[in-house]
Design brief:
heterodimer; A: about 75% helix; B: TATA-Binding Protein; 4 domains; 6-stranded antiparallel sheet; 5-stranded antiparallel sheet; 7 helices; 19 strands; about 35% helix
């Protein structure tokens, strides 16, 4: 199985693509069968994704946390799992039309950064790697979902603004409940994002001799953290609701993506082996 | 008020005082705090786009400018002030009875009205029982001045928020303390040699000791990639061996809080320059890619190759010392005048009648970072405080409920106001309604 790790992830990618099409088809045609097919395709996708993670682990000889491709495949897996939880709890099939396309696009991006499995470089040979990356999967997975649901909010908002209360608007959750979901996901992610940065700092103290060096990765993780800190203050103290809060949630996830992908590509630093 | 206001300096200065007070109030507001956060974010953003090592003429290394430090300082003052200001209300809401406070229920964020055929007393008892069962702390009104019943849940959540804010101050304090009382130095230690760590060079070292590098090895995986860089280091104090340890990237040495990290590695090349008559005029140990200057020449040993093969001059055929060569470049007035590979001990002429340069020996060294940061335990404590605070703050459902029950025409009217978790409020009020309705129904049956 280990030889097929790349193919398995490609199959997951195509399954997520099929799931996205089904879910979007459901929004367009409002046919419940399509939503069911979307769910089945995403379950198949997670199955392939899980196999890909196992195969990669076997091939590399360590958990797939050592570079952007490896972490990316685990992140997408986490995002789709979070999607199942949200769909189960909210009983809203329409959200898949926003979360799965994001999972599909992310899977495609990470597949572009594919690199051969290699043994761990000296800096990564630490027990902190596991906890650091697990925190990242939780935090970034929940934030990716929050971004997709914020996008749902904007579609619903637009429909309502145009006075369209047709069947499409009816299958989308209420604006207030979308906002609450976004807020809950961010509140859920924030302690993990904090732990992500703090475990990274403790690890850096042991590996690089300093818990903070203003390395681009560190700085960008701080910027991301600040964006969400401002969101939390805005929502709880300044009474941000609606467009402003949701825009901020989307901006937050863009900074997450930049921290995770952009920094590796554009800003060389101590973290550059992750690329 | 019977005194006529005397227009004196006092009132004027009061006016000024209130202006300063107003400014101070404005500064310590949450909005100012958020504005400072935005500025920190913007500065951090700009800083990441200045390439390291080539700092901008005006901006420099953004994170160590006084401007950035001032921002962080202002942020800390703001956090401290905002936390202090919140504290009394926080204390009251945690400890003091809330039932008799005059709260306007219909102006609270959540509000519902129920109409129940029942008596005031039985509604209060039912509500108190239900809320207690749901994990609420319930207080009933004593003096009849306000709502009849107050209940709350998750009262520790705001303390978590406070802990997160204070943790930022703790971390900053730890970082400052470490900056003032710690040290951080990189040294290149050749294999076989020692370095003295004394209080005069390394502030805070009470008893001097020495670090000896016994061996330095690079370990490889089967596929040829690097698995680890390993320095075998012995600590000696007063001439006796205290401990021996392998230092690797993820395995620093800790000797009484003085940390030794594997930082880099390389080779130093002993370089001798002689004049035309053969007299030694310069001798230096030069790191790879370093340089030594003599008579207007700069001699740069670029790389040490232990097993030189002319067909592939850049790559060593093995790591054994079979054919040790040094790849070098010689510059004059900033221009390359000569480059090549020289065997150890071979004389290289420095243009006509200018003497020779000889690379006599090569020694591998380990680049070690020697660090002492007494602020680290404080910072770690701040990290724990922040993590615990965040989980308490964001994973606790907090809800405060106020209830009034008033007799109406043939029924009582229950007003429920709430602050906090919306879903929990709706759920609790619905349960209360169901309970009261079923109570009434069962009473009718009797």
């Amino acid at each position: 199985m280990a030889e097929y790790e790349a193919q398995l992830f490609n199959l997951a990618f195509f399954s997520y693509f099929a799931a996205s099409c089904m879910y979007i088809g459901y929004l367009v045609m409002l046919n419940d069968k399509l939503a069911l097919l979307g769910r089945i395709a995403s379950i198949i996708g997670v199955g392939f994704n899980t196999l890909a993670i196992i195969a990669r682990t076997m091939k590399a000889g360590h958990l797939p946390f050592a570079n952007m491709y490896e972490f990316g495949m685990v992140l997408v897996w986490g995002l789709v799992i979070i999607h199942f939880v949200i769909e189960y709890q909210s009983k809203r099939k329409a959200l898949g039309a926003f979360v799965l396309p994001l999972a599909f696009v992310l899977a495609g991006v990470f597949a572009l950064f594919y690199q051969e499995a290699r043994p761990l470089v000296p800096a990564l040979k630490s027990n902190w790697l596991l906890i650091h990356v697990v925190m990242a999967v939780f935090a970034y997975g929940a934030l990716a979902a929050s971004c997709a649901i914020a996008a749902t909010y904007f579609l619903k908002h637009r429909l309502e603004k145009n006075g369209d209360d047709g069947p499409l608007s009816a299958v989308l959750p209420e604006l207030e409940s979308l906002e609450n979901m976004v807020n809950q996901l961010i509140a859920l992610a924030m302690p993990f994002m904090t732990l992500l940065i703090l475990t990274g700092a403790v690890w850096a103290e042991y590996a690089w001799g300093s818990y903070w060096r203003w390395d681009p990765k560190e700085t960008w993780s701080l910027i991301t953290w600040l964006v969400y800190a401002i969101y939390l203050h805005g929502r709880s103290v300044l009474g941000w609701r609606g467009n402003r809060a949701m825009t901020w949630a989307i901006v937050g996830f863009i900074t997450v993506l930049f921290t995770f992908i952009g920094v590796n590509v554009l800003l060389p630093g101590l973290h550059s082996y992750a690329f | 008020m019977d005194e006529k206001p005397a227009v004196t300096r006092e009132t004027v200065s009061q006016g000024r005082g209130s202006l300063i007070l107003q400014f101070f109030r404005g500064f310590v507001s949450m909005r100012t705090g958020i504005f400072i956060l935005l500025l920190v974010m913007a500065a951090a953003f700009i800083g990441t786009f200045i390439p390291p090592g080539r700092e901008h003429k005006f901006l420099g290394d953004v994170y160590h400018t006084w401007c950035f430090r001032l921002l962080l300082g202002l942020l800390c003052v703001n956090i401290l002030a905002c936390s202090a200001r919140r504290l009394p209300a926080l204390w009251r809401s945690t400890t003091m009875p809330q039932a008799s406070s005059s709260v306007k229920l219909d102006s609270l964020p959540h509000y519902q009205e129920l109409k129940i055929e029942s008596s005031v007393e039985s509604v209060v008892i039912t509500a108190a029982t239900l809320l207690t069962q749901r994990g609420f702390r319930v207080q009933t009104d004593k003096d009849g001045a306000g709502p009849l019943l107050y209940a709350d849940r998750g009262r520790w959540a705001p303390w978590g928020t406070l802990a997160v804010h204070l943790s930022i101050l703790v971390i900053t304090a730890g970082a400052l303390y470490g900056n003032f009382y710690g040290f951080d130095r990189d040294i290149a230690l050749p294999v076989g040699s020692s370095v003295e760590i004394t209080g005069s060079q390394y502030p805070g070292v009470a008893q001097p000791f020495s670090l000896k590098l016994n061996t330095f090895t690079t370990q490889y995986y089967d596929d040829g990639s690097v698995s680890d860089w390993v320095s075998n280091i012995t600590v000696e104090q007063n001439g006796t061996k205290v401990l021996s340890q392998e230092v690797k990237v993820n395995q620093p040495l800790d000797y009484n809080g003085i940390m030794v990290y594997q930082f880099s590695y390389g080779t130093t090349i002993s370089t001798q320059v002689t004049d035309a008559q053969g007299h030694l005029i310069k001798e230096a140990d030069v790191a790879e890619r370093g340089g030594v200057e003599s008579q207007g020449f700069v001699i740069r040993p670029v790389r040490f190759v232990p097993d030189f093969n002319p067909a592939q001059p850049m790559a060593s055929a093995s790591s054994e010392l079979r054919n040790p060569h040094v790849l070098y470049i010689i510059y004059r007035d900033g221009r390359e005048v000569d480059w090549g590979a020289a065997k150890l001990g071979e004389e290289i002429p420095l243009s006509k009648n200018k003497g020779h340069v000889t690379f006599t020996a090569a020694q591998p060294f380990s680049g070690l970072q020697i660090k002492h940061d007494p602020g680290v335990p404080v910072v770690w404590f701040g990290f724990i405080l922040m993590t615990v605070g965040f989980f308490i703050s964001l994973y606790t459902k907090r809800l405060r409920i106020w209830l009034t029950v008033a007799p109406g025409q043939g029924a009582v009217i229950v007003q429920a106001g709430g602050r906090g978790n919306r879903n929990l409020f709706d759920q609790v009020v619905e349960e209360l309604n169901n309970q009261l309705v079923s109570d009434t129904a069962s009473r009718r049956k009797i």
